[in-house]
Amino acid sequence: MDYLETYIPKEYLALKINYCKKQLEQLPKVKLCEYHTSGEAVKRIIIGKHRYNLDSSNGKKYYAIWLEKKKREKQLQIYQVVWDSHYNSEPLTECVPHKASRKLYISPDKYVILNKAFFDSLENDANKDHPKNKNYYFNGTYYRSAAERDIAIFYTRLGIPFKYEPGIILIGLNKPVNPDFVIYIEELDTCIFHEHFGMKDSSDYLRMTKVKYGNYTNAGLIPELDILFTHDVEDMPFDIRYLYAKLNTAIYGHTIMHVPHDVIASYNYC
Length: 270
Hints:
alpha+beta, 2 domains, four-stranded mixed β-sheet, 39% helix, 20% strand
């Protein structure tokens, strides 16, 4: 993805910058050096006073850390360039990366944490109940509408992993539901659901929309924080720019929920 050509909402961009900084602070101080021995160039990993060959077990472990460090440094450099090109300030300090630990209730006394383990457990494109339109294809998946395909492209361009129509158990239901999208926000180690509603002129569809809304909130999801709702109606077609605002609001909501209220009150928003 070319981040320099892609718009990233301000608060989300600040979160990405702060996340990279935090990751780099936590990674061990690892260096990759090249030595010349008997006319041959040999690379070794250096950590503290220790040196390891790349083919040793420690060498492989620390080389992987070195690669992660270089990846985060490159990301941070790109994000910082994007920030500096738009804003004459430091990235927002309240956009603190953390583990959101949001819960989804699957029974009255049982819940799952909406983290990476949960996301990885989901099957992509699991809904086989209804046929799909073969006209809406992107990156190996057929989508049910042009809007859903546009949403998939949107998340892909932002570098946000997602699962399309996975099967998920909710409290009070006899069979899994299939939300249109479940995305994973690495900087918060949390998932956000996304339901896109169309055909709003249909009374049956309206009833189904109301039921879905109730099922999700009953399972503990907070609208516009844990789950996003977008719409596509004839007199007001879906515009992907609307999703930028909704996504950023949800992400920012997660960050300020983590910051003490007295700290938030001290910020100058003028």
